[in-house]
Each structure stands twice: as structure tokens, then as C-alpha cells.
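Dear support,

I submitted the protein below through the web form. The confirmation email said the job was done, but the results page showed an empty box. After a refresh the structure appeared. I'm attaching both so you can tell me whether what I see now is the final result or a partial one.
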Amino acid sequence: MIKRVVALTVLEMALFGLSLFAGSPFSGSWTSEVELQPGTNAFKSLDSLFKVNYSFGSLVSASDSEVFLPGGFIWQGFGVTGKLGPLSVQADLLFGPSTNDFVYAQEIFSLSLVGVDLGVYWATLSGVVRGGPADGFALRVAGSAGSVKAVSVTEFGARIQDEDVDGITIVHAATGRRRSYLTNPLVRIETPPVYGDGRTGEKITVSGFASGCVENIATTVYLTEAGFDFFKITLAGIELGLSWLEFDLTATFELQTKSVAMTPTFHLGTTTCLVPYLEVLTDAPDHTLYPPFTSFTGISLYGIGLEYSWGGVTVKDLTVFDTGRYAITTPEYGSVIEEIAEALERGHDVTADTWELFSVEVSVDGCCGGASRLLVNTYFQKGAGGAFGWGMTYAEATAGISSGISLTANVEVKTTGLDHFGLGVEAAW
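What the results page shows now:
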């Protein structure tokens, strides 16, 4: 199976890559960042990423190479995207040049006909990656009638990324560098090969209903080969007759763990957003009844978030009340409150023992058509010796000196002193 997927992907890239010989337009970017050893200003690491895109009609072939020192030439990726009439195609290949290994491949075909979208997602993972060798595919069907839209994803050994399910993130163990893709193959290939025996999951989402003061109602049910996984209902744009107050409510029922999570989002005008993180508490199910009966015993507030934006400035404050079960994800994963067990399962990084995050982000137009941005995150942690429990401050800045060139810098300071300092440059053409 792996050889077949790789061969087909290479064939697509060979056909669509003829743009290289047609003198077609090309674009690209180069990003480089050097990290210095705190206290000595000595070199610690260098990360350099070079991307080139070649266009041929509606098709684009791409190459991206990443070098990380120490570590060497760690990633080499190839890709093709484009449209052929109603058919959209995407193919990706990833190699590890430093070890001469094939790592991952995916293919995505989607077709839109008379209001119905059909998609096939196919991927394979090498045995050099934890969880591999594995492969699988998924079918996605979406359609609408008026304002109501239905999406069905049938999994045959693979999951595809959406708002509820992550794709796949591949981590280079020696350097920690990551690559993420939409299709996550789950069916492990054995010797002799075993490719699975049919459907492994089904996810159905229906949205677009409106009722009274609710602008949109969406429901999602997800079943796996192990049984029921979750049911989610979202009520968006709930209005209570107050012009300055509108909120969303999401409730997720996970009967495997007997929990119900609710995340209402209150929009206080156009600039302020308040998010209380709630969990509905239940007792143990009564298995003498069928189906087993579970009663609700209370509601737990395990976190709260407040965000205010105006004139290019965004201020965010997150507070976690139950740091034993919940944590704040790193900026790479959105700086949101997430259950630790779920974060580990989805491969998200969190800040350990953090009970509060105060963040300020400023975005402005730079000189000569560039854009500038400054992000400062201050974390307060349990057991930290700083004032008010201060544990760490992370800051990153981007200064656009032209429409295609930006300078970057990032720094991380902990109670023990300067922990990280990096400088970089980004160029695009």
C-alpha cells in the first residue's frame, strides 16, 4: 500500500511539475532564525526554511526544505495543488534527508457537482514515525438545501482535520520541529500486511437551522469502531433582546467518560468577548437500568476567559481554576484552556501549572508596505517565586521593513532568568 500511494503521488507531481520546464512563474519564501545561548550570546541553533512554488495554469507545484543546526537537513517536502475543471487535487510528500527516509504521503481529490461536494482523502505513514507504518482513507460528502448544510465523513482507517478532529502532526525527535497535514492514517500495517476490514468511523454534522433568538444551530455526532465517541450541539448568535449582548453555547456529550462540557461565549458589544469554561458533573451510571441512567449533580466552572480588541490591540486574560485537569495551550495552539488529557491525545503543547495568562498583541502597518506585530504573553504559575506567582514571560515581534522582508525576534524569560533569545529574517517574493 505504501509503495502504491507513493508511486501515484510521485506520478502526479511528475505530470503537474512540467511547469518547471515551461518557464512558468514562480514565487517563494525564505525564513531563517538563529537562537543564541542565554548569558553568552553564543550560537545555539539555526533554523532555515526555504520554499519555492511553481505555477502552471491552475496548478501549483511546491518544494520546501528545512535545515536545523545542529540536526542537519531534517525535512524535504513536495506538493501539488490545483484544479482541473470541477476536480480539485492536492498531493504531498515528506522525506527525512538526514536519514534517507520516506516519512509521509497524502492525496486529496475533491469534486463539486450540482451542489454536492465529494472528497477522498488518502494517506500513508512510514514506519520510521511513531504509530507507523499505517495507512487509510476517508470519504467526505457535503451538501446543502437552503441554509441547512449536512456533512458526512466516513473513515476507512483515516481521520481528516476539522474543527473537532486534528489531522496529523509529525515531530522530528532530535530537534522538535513539526510538520502538520490534514489526513491522519490510523490503520497499522502489519507483516504480512493487514489493511483493516472496512469502516472505522462515521461523523455527521448538520448546521444552518435557525430558531427564534438563535441565529444558527449545529449538531455533530461521531461514532468510531469502539462505539459512541461524542455528540455536540452549538447554538450560535443567541440574542436576548439586548443590543450589546450576544452569546454562543456549545455543549459536548462524551458518554464514554460521562461528562458534558459547555463553552458559552458572550459578545459584549463588538470589542469584548467573555468565555466561561463549564463542565456538567454527573454521578456513576446505574447499570441496573437500560440504557444506564446517569443523573446530573452540578456544574463546575474550571476556567474563564476575557478578550478585548480595539484599534489593532488585543488584550486577553485566561484563568484556570482546576490546574490538575486543565491547562493553557501555547501560542502555537491558540492560547486556549484545554483538558490536559485531551491536549496530550491531540499533540498540543501546554504550559505546565499555569493558572493565568495575560496577553497583549499589537498589530500595525509597517513602513514600505510591511506589517508589524508584537505579542507579549505573561504566565502566572503555581509555586512560582515571582510577584503574584509570575512564572514566565514570552514575547515575539515582527517588523516589516518592506512588503516582502520582515525581521523577527523572540525572547522567553523565567524566574531563573533569560531562557531563550532568537533573531530571524523572513523574505518572500
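Response: this is the final, complete result; the empty box was a page-load delay. The helical segments are 2-16, 340-346.
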